[in-house]
Design brief:
The structure holds four protein chains of four kinds. Chain A has two domains: 1-81 and 169-250, Rossmann fold; 96-167, no CATH class. Helix content of chain A is 37%, strand content 25%. Chain A contains nine helices and ten strands. In chain A, strand 1 and strand 2 form a beta hairpin. In chain C, helix 1 (3-32) runs parallel beside helix 5 (140-162) and helix 2 (39-57) crosses helix 9. The longest helix of chain C is centred in the first third of the chain and has 30 residues, at 3-32. Chain D is globular, with a radius of gyration of 22 Å. Classes of the chains: A alpha/beta, B mainly alpha, C mainly alpha, D alpha/beta. At the B-C interface, helix 5, helix 10 and helix 12 of B face helix 4, helix 9 and helix 11 of C.
Chain lengths: 250, 326, 287, 397
């Protein structure tokens, strides 16, 4: 078994009286594609937000490579090499696709705070951005304004930005949401390729996609972890079948 | 991010050239008046960095302008030091430090909070000078001399000479323009614009958003300090009104009238607004009524300001035939 | 009554007045997301109307009754022909528009009522005083202001928490689209709220007129103080406005007594401290 | 005759915003106005002090009209400019009048901060400045100048006699309450000078920040200190509110209130019973029983339908001052030495009584004691005869 890259211990988050995430202890292993599934309102996105630093936990701990990063602000978490994408497309609408990726690529490189040299003269940043666009099949869309792109393209841009910042660990919140079958296939392909070199945590509703790429699956219900195991074991798990997969698998 | 079209660049060059030539033909009073306009343009430009690029709507920017004027007054009339090479950095530093403290408190908040907090904290500085008899209180204080810009007994620039002062102000304006252009083209500048567009996303990409904002706030504060240094040297006067929120509102007006998010907008805005105020005042005693209505109209009808007019007109033209066809 | 107690009374009473002005500001912001710099100008409009009508009718209460609809109408007109177009824009434009509005209202006041300073007599039955100490008495009218403020606070609370309009207002504050989808006329709702906010500020000006004086530009100072109150309390929170107003009133009073050198700065220092502790204000929602 | 900048600009055909037109203005103007004297009148016509600006202007025009609208036999023209009581604009406005409009002489203003700015511009441009109101002491002390004259008062002046008055009334202890701003301090200083010299004791100085009108905390302090009397300096809205609060706090009956005339002038009618009994000192009293005053008040009322006040008197005297000086040099304002000499030697038979100028160019004048009595301001007598400001720190050079 590989070592745990990201670990949560008793992680909880309450919103007023509602426990959105409750006592979640997970170990994400290095190099593994780890899917988180569960019905709407199960607390999946909240969990991602807790991992990425967008939300602070009410209780519990997050460890990355053995280091306690609980309640670290999002930008510091990002600097560790944990990147995330959003379920609801979250891009710079008035920027070109290229500039979207360029900003992402610049973020973690030294010299992001440079006030003198032109941003567009940074060869390392530019090539990263270009590469990311290519990987996501958006090379020919580089100069298009993000807001003018199709929905599917915007979803891919969301991924491209993530890649441009070259994280080790990717937190993907429904990367396939709202995509047509063709686009989905392309992205699943991309995710498989990424899996070779990255650790992936993804929330996804598309069960075919989940079983196609995931090596581990965590099932969440009502903020708690119901089961966390290999896809085969999850498929066989009675409790999961009853609680969630029942209709989906049959 | 300023990436100017060729037409804009040519117009800019022409504009600056016209300003450079003006003292050759202009009459004394207008040299003085244009100097003032350029100083206010510089001030508004510094505010534009916050409002137009970083998305930080500050309603307390005049405070940094004002503390610089009192720094000049303090050096010359309280300490008896007239060395401009000492006063200038000190004025910039005082403005920057005030901006750092006010910024540090303010940038924890966003939106309306930010507007209100910058306003209130700036008022605090206003009342400080307003209440201290040592600084002349409400009367303000005359500054008995102009800062001396001399090296080894040789006067580099004689600020008491109106034409030389004019060119000093112009040089400062151009320098600030170039400096900000460079800044906005840099990774830092791009990040600022990104923060304005989508702060949360920038954070999750790994940008320390607060730090960027604070640095922008301090840079803008220091530039406002430069404008304050120039204005107090020009007018040889310091008054609490320089720090008041009406001055901040006025600067905001210049920025929006000219066109925020363009560095030349504030210059355009300063010339148009100050000359227009000058003209309104000759029309009627009730000129503030006209100005108020004008301000409201600009807010409603010209969100992109003068700089955005060509684009708007072009857009209208494009739309008109379509409508005709339909 | 001891010296300390009397000073506390002064501070609390001042706080009540500040609350009355600030509540309208926080209401408009909390529900409509609009920053209204002209709030102080509405306060001034109220004071001038109260003075002018009281002078004409000889009764302050009659004046208030007549002036209130006028100020509501003023609010409605300004919303309909100005503010309405700025909801979706950056706050910047609201700042600019209402800044222009201040200039216009200030100048209109001068054209209509001139530059003189005026006093408004309190109604005879409230004109008395109460003895507080051997040397000092306290005007009954000031106590009346406090009672009125409590009344307004209670009425606002009931309106917002207990009535159908209040329910829609509260829902509109957080879920504008949802309320619209449910068939409520959001545009009309906002118009009403803006009118109500403007009238609250004007009402404060009317009620305070006999205890204060009526003079040109009187709205400027009260505006900044209202901002401080609202920011301390948490924008959009009536409860917060109340707490903020009390804090500012008491801090200002004791600042004058205990720290006369820095009296002008006390309230701002208090504000800065509160914000360092809670950037969203005492009762503000976390962003 | 009088022209304001509106007509001036219209004639010049100016869209002043246009650069070309702007630079064309001065030449046209110089040709058209060669023979006339140009007086630059810089006063507030908008804002808090607008009423003062209007009274000064109207009374001055009244006086000049009485003299046949000629100064030293010369036609004149007045260029009016609203200073908005805005210090940041003070220098530019003064420069506009002196540099662009080429006025021969500058007159103004009400706000001390603006006047201080004007004084410096006048000095730089080497032009005369006549101040018809602003009372900042520095204008005729450390900032005095041979070409600067004041026809009104210094803040110290009307206040100084009030200390003696309080002592004479049998008071031994006093609390001073004034806005924390220069005019308040200078006025309080005047009271202190004479009160302490005569053996009185100042228990405490309460200084609310300008222009706050929240006085309750201070009043409670006064009530607990129980001084024999209180000296205050507030004006306009602040004065009105203070008097009402002072009465409502129950202090009026037990602790006598003193102040300079600005405390009650213009607002005592509004204050009603709250002003009753307050004693003030000033260089003027409405009911001065002299022919000059009566005639002036009637004429001013007729011309403007308003009642004259101390500001109108100052404007009127500014007119007399101009007439006497320029008559002496036959309208030749370039004859600076004789003109200064003439102005230094003026003897003005003013509605406020006859006054002359001190060596620091400040009126040497009688200060009157007045009291509000049965809703009217009554003259009680002269509090100090021919009082002159010390002019300390003034070096005429």
């Amino acid at each position: 078994m590989a070592d745990a890259m990201l670990e949560t211990i008793g992680l909880s988050r309450r919103f007023g009286g509602l426990a959105a995430v409750q006592d979640v202890s997970l170990a994400i292993e290095r190099g593994v594609v780890h899917a988180i599934v569960g019905p709407n309102g199960a607390g999946k996105t909240t969990l991602i937000n807790l991992l990425s630093g967008d939300l602070k936990p009410s209780a519990g701990m997050v460890r990355y490579k053995g280091r306690d990063i609980t309640a670290w602000p999002a930008h510091k978490v990002a600097h560790l090499g944990i990147g995330r994408s959003y379920q609801k497309t979250n891009i710079f609408r008035d920027h070109s696709a290229f500039e979207n990726c360029r900003l992402a690529a610049q973020a973690r490189l030294p010299g992001a705070f440079d006030m003198l040299r032109p941003a567009r003269s940074r060869a390392d940043v530019l090539s990263r951005a270009r590469q990311a666009l290519e990987q996501c099949g958006l090379a020919d869309r580089a100069q298009r304004r993000a807001v003018d792109m199709s929905y599917g393209e915007q979803r891919q841009l969301e991924l491209a930005m993530l890649l441009a910042s070259e994280p080790e660990l990717l937190l993907l919140d429904e990367p396939l949401a709202g995509m047509g079958p063709e686009e989905s296939a392309r992205v699943i392909d991309l995710l498989k390729r990424l899996a070779a070199t990255h650790t992936l945590v993804m929330i996804e509703h598309d069960m075919d996609a989940v079983f196609a790429v995931a090596e581990r699956i965590t099932v969440m219900v009502n903020g708690s972890v119901l089961a966390s195991d290999t896809p085969a074991a999850i498929r066989a798990n009675k409790a999961v079948q009853e609680a969630y997969l029942g209709e989906a698998v049959s | 991010m300023p990436s100017y079209s060729r037409v804009t660049l040519v117009l800019l060059a022409l504009g600056f050239a016209a300003l450079a030539l003006f003292p050759l033909v202009g009459e004394t009073f207008y040299i003085r008046f244009f100097t003032k306009i350029m100083i206010y343009a510089l001030f508004a430009m510094s505010l534009d960095l916050l409002v137009g690029y970083a998305g930080l709507v500050s309603l307390g920017h005049a405070a940094f302008f004002g503390v610089a004027t009192y720094t000049v007054a303090g050096f010359i009339d309280k300490l008896g030091i007239a060395d401009g090479f000492l006063i200038l950095p000190a004025a910039l530093a005082v403005a920057a430090i005030c901006a750092a403290v006010i910024g540090w408190i303010s940038i924890r908040t966003t939106g309306v909070y930010f507007i209100m907090i910058t306003l209130a904290l700036a008022q605090m500085l206003y009342y400080f000078f307003n209440d201290q008899l040592y600084w002349g209180g409400t009367d303000g204080m005359n500054i008995s001399a102009k800062p001396l810009l001399a090296l080894g007994g040789f006067t580099l620039v004689d600020l008491s000479n109106r034409v030389q002062f004019y060119y000093t102000a112009l040089a400062c304006l151009v320098t600030a323009f170039v400096m900000l252009s460079v800044l906005l083209r840099s990774p830092f500048g791009h990040a600022l614009v990104g923060i304005r567009a989508n702060e949360g996303r920038m954070r999750s990409l790994g940008y320390d958003v607060q730090r960027y904002k604070l640095v922008a706030f301090v840079v803008a504060g220091a530039l406002a300090g430069l404008a304050g240094f120039l204005e107090s040297s020009r007018a040889t006067f310091a008054t609490p009104a320089y720090l008041g929120w009406h001055e901040s509102g006025h600067a905001l007006m210049i920025v929006i009238l000219g066109g925020m998010g363009t560095l030349y907008g504030p210059i355009l805005g300063a010339f148009v607004l100050l000359l227009m105020e000058d003209y309104f005042a000759t029309l009627t005693e009730r000129w503030l009524l006209i100005e108020g209505l004008f301000v409201m109209a600009v807010a409603l009808l010209m969100p992109e300001g003068l700089a955005g007019l060509p684009r708007r007109i072009a857009a209208l033209r494009r739309r008109a035939p379509e409508n005709g066809d339909g | 009554m001891s010296y300390f107690l009397i000073q506390t009374l002064n501070g609390v009473q001042y706080g009540f007045l500040l609350f009355l002005v600030a509540s309208g500001l926080t209401l408009i912001f909390g529900i409509m997301g609009v920053i209204n710099l002209a709030h102080g100008a509405f306060y001034m409009v109220g004071a001038y109307l109260a003075w002018w009508l009281a002078e004409k009718t000889g009764s302050l209460f009659l004046a208030v009754l007549m002036a209130l609809p006028v100020t509501v109408l003023l609010g409605l007109v300004i919303e309909r022909f100005g503010i309405r177009y700025l909801y979706k824009r950056d706050h910047l434009y609201q700042v600019l528009f209402t800044y222009g509005l201040i200039l216009v209202l200030n100048e209109a006041q001068r054209v209509l009522f001139g530059n003189d300073v005026h006093g408004v007599p309190a109604p005879a039955w409230l004109a008395g005083t109460i003895r507080l100490s051997e040397a000092q008495t306290y005007p009954v009218y000031r106590l009346f202001i406090s009672v009125t403020c409590v009344g307004v606070a209670a009425a606002l609370y009931l309106l917002i928490q207990r009535t159908r309009l209040g329910m829609v207002i509260r829902a509109g504050a957080t879920h504008r689209d949802m309320v619209a989808a449910l068939g409520f006329d959001i545009a009309r709702l906002f118009m009403i709220v803006f009118g109500l906010g403007a009238a609250l500020a004007a009402f404060a000006g009317m009620i305070a007129a006999p205890a204060n004086t009526v003079y040109p530009g009187m709205g400027d100072q009260i505006l900044i103080l209202s901002f401080v109150v609202v920011v301390i309390g948490g924008i959009g929170s009536i409860k917060g406005a109340f707490a903020g107003a009390m804090l500012v009133g008491v801090a200002d009073t004791f600042g004058r007594v205990l720290l006369p050198q820095g009296a002008g700065v006390t309230v701002y220092a208090v504000m800065a401290l509160v914000l360092l502790w809670r950037p969203q204000g005492l009762f503000g929602r976390t962003a | 005759m009088q022209r304001n900048r509106r007509t001036f600009l219209k004639q010049a055909g100016a869209g002043a915003a246009v650069l070309a037109a702007a630079s064309a203005l001065p030449t046209r103007f110089a040709v058209a106005q060669k023979a006339k004297l140009k007086l630059g009148l810089m006063l507030p016509y908008t804002g808090t002090y607008a009423a003062l600006g209007h009274n000064i202007t109207d009374a001055m025009n009244l006086r000049l009209a009485e003299a046949g609208n000629k100064l030293g036999g010369r036609e004149y023209e007045i260029v009016k400019l609203d200073d908005e009581s805005a210090p940041p604009k003070g220098k530019d406005n003064a420069a506009r009048l002196l540099v662009r409009d080429k006025c021969d002489l500058l007159i103004g203003t009400v706000h001390s901060g603006v006047a201080i700015a004007m004084a410096q511009v006048a000095k730089e441009e080497n032009k005369f400045l006549v101040i018809p109101n602003a009372g900042a002491v520095q204008l005729t002390r450390q900032n005095c100048s041979p070409k600067l004259f004041r026809t009104s008062f210094s803040n110290w002046q009307p206040a100084y006699p009030s200390g003696d008055v309080a002592l004479k009334d049998g008071h031994k202890t006093a609390v001073i309450m004034t806005w924390k701003y220069p005019a308040g301090f200078e006025s309080a200083g005047g009271f202190k000078d004479s009160f302490v010299k005569g053996g009185g004791k100042i228990i405490k100085e309460i200084l609310p920040d300008f222009p706050s009108v929240e006085f309750q905390a201070g009043l409670t302090e006064i009530a607990s200190l129980k001084p024999d009397c209180v000296y205050v300096f507030f004006a306009g809205a602040g004065a009105l509110k203070f008097m009402k609060d002072y009465e409502a706090a129950g202090l009026k009956a037990s602790i006598q209130l003193y102040g300079p005339g600005f405390l009650t002038d213009g607002v005592y009618k509004q204050a009603g019973s709250a002003a009753e009994g307050i004693k003030t000192t000033l260089h003027y009293a409405d009911d001065l029983d002299t022919p000059v005053n009566k005639k002036f008040r009637a004429a001013f009322k007729k011309a403007t339908t308003r009642e004259a006040d101390v500001y109108a008197v100052q404007g009127y005297d500014t007119g007399t001052f101009l007439i006497q000086g320029l008559d002496a040099v036959k309208g030749d304002i370039s004859a600076e030495k004789p003109l200064i000499k003439a102005w230094e030697g003026v003897k003005i038979d003013s509605p406020r009584g006859i006054f002359t100028l001190s060596w620091s160019h400040e009126p040497i004048q009688d200060i009157y004691l007045r009291q509000i009595y049965s809703g009217d301001e009554k003259l009680l007598g002269v509090a100090h005869k021919a009082l002159a400001d010390s002019g300390s720190g003034c070096v005429m050079a």
